[in-house]
From TrEMBL:
InterPro entries with a match to the protein in the record: Cupin_2 (IPR013096), RmlC-like_jellyroll (IPR014710), RmlC_Cupin_sf (IPR011051)
PANTHER family with a match to the protein in the record: SLR8022 PROTEIN
SUPFAM superfamilies: RmlC-like cupins
Official protein name in the record: Quercetin dioxygenase-like cupin family protein
Cupin type-2 domain sequence ranges: 41-91
Pfam families: Cupin_2
Alphabetized CDD domains for the sequence: cupin_HP0902-like (cd02230)
Length: 118
């Protein structure tokens, strides 16, 4: 059994993001490449964008603090502290509308990943 304080981790990631040239910082709190489930706490400085990327499976974004915009194509959803956003399949992008901390949870599936025969 492991226990994490997401509040403390988020605070650390936001402090790091504020001074990083990229405007972001992240720490995987559970899982990794060898697991199906991966959970990452991210800190984003205001205005930082996580460029468009392909969703590798089923994913959610829990806004731990701040305010973000999740975009996929022409659709946009806004999330604030306490909101849980379900990532759409395909590609998406996240923009920090203000200093924000997120918990990104991804369960990798074969969906959306081209097979070796494609």
């Amino acid at each position: 059994m492991k226990k994490f304080s997401l509040t403390a981790i988020a605070r650390t990631q936001m402090r790091t993001a504020a001074t990083a040239s990229s405007g972001r910082s992240a720490s995987t709190v559970f899982g990794g490449h060898e697991h199906t489930l991966r959970q990452t706490v991210m800190g984003l400085a205001a205005g930082t964008e996580l460029k468009e990327h392909i969703n590798p499976g089923e994913a959610t974004v829990m806004v731990l603090s701040g305010r973000i915009r999740l975009s996929s194509g022409e659709q946009h959803w806004e999330g604030r502290t306490g909101d849980l956003l379900v990532m759409p399949s395909g590609t998406s992008q996240i923009t920090a509308l203000e200093e924000s901390a997120l918990l990104l949870s991804v369960a990798k599936t074969d969906r959306g990943v081209p097979s070796a025969t494609s």
